[in-house]
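FIELD: query
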Amino acid sequence: MIVLDNVTKYFKTEGEKKYILKNVSFVLPEGINLGILGRNGAGKSTFLRMLGGIDFPTSGDIRSDKSFSWPMGLAGGFQGSMTGRQNVKFVARIYGKDEASIEKIIQSVEDFAEIGDYFDMPIKIYSSGMKSRLSFGLSLAFDFDYLIIDETLSVGDENFKKKAENALMQKIEHSNVLLVSHSMAILKKLCDVGVVLNEGKLNYFDKIDDAIKFYHQLNLEKPAEGNVKQSSAIYCSDGNIFDDVTEAAKFYKMRPFAILQALEHNNGSLVYLQKVFWRDGMQAQQYQKWKDVFKEQTLISSDGVIFEDVLEAASFYAERFPNKTIEIEDIKEALASEKKVSKKINVQFHYLSEYQ
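FIELD: result
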């Protein structure tokens, strides 16, 4: 079990204390998979690290006799000048593995991460995604009582996400998870119980569905100017829930304008992601193709924005990249190129009709 005894955690910002937890006592029973929810900035990741003994309370005590993984996907502990192989070997030695076990662990991580020749190159040249793959594979190579997961399943392409989830499900047969995720579907699939962090309080629920319902309620209404309450939470058809459009756009690595465009002009359908978005209080619609598409005229960009024509696309990016001098010919050249990518702004363009 994990025991929190009168735990307080805060950070000082601009002379004020931002509380993650305030005088919280709590016991998480053994054999339980825990989902952690809360609004953006509520301290979910900090709380997760404290449970795993990676971060510490300002006051109070957190106790457990269980073993914890490092946060799966977190690459901060790697030595940048060493190769992936050397880092894996180093960690295995720290955990007291013999040479035969070390070789098995190295092979397992190499196969899982799928980073090819980069496995024998210095980690400092890795992309963040490659580091996350390596870290995830390394976590799976050891046996822990608890696996610490902070949005790791969102790393990589769809094939890797599926592979990571399948491997994780096998691991959960012998371990429990402490999970932070924006995906309600993942939380429901992996977790038994849930906690919702809100303004220094920890709200515990014996069923993950009840925790999600409470979290939804927190997002339904937010104080606005003049004490008028309004909805700002954004829902996605894949089960994710976000505090606002900006957070959703950051998660999917696209422009907020693309999500607003889908919400306001296409009943929430986002063509690039083939998903549907809606706000609290709105009824979710079925996915549909973009309306009023003219063949060889309407464009879609790789950051999700729809344009009526090349001129509109050029104007849009000229405004957002004033130092790049974007012109109509730049978009036309990208459309005519093999990869359809504008090197100036690193954005790919398609005619919407051919994309659909």
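FIELD: remark
The first strand starts at residue 2 and ends at 13.
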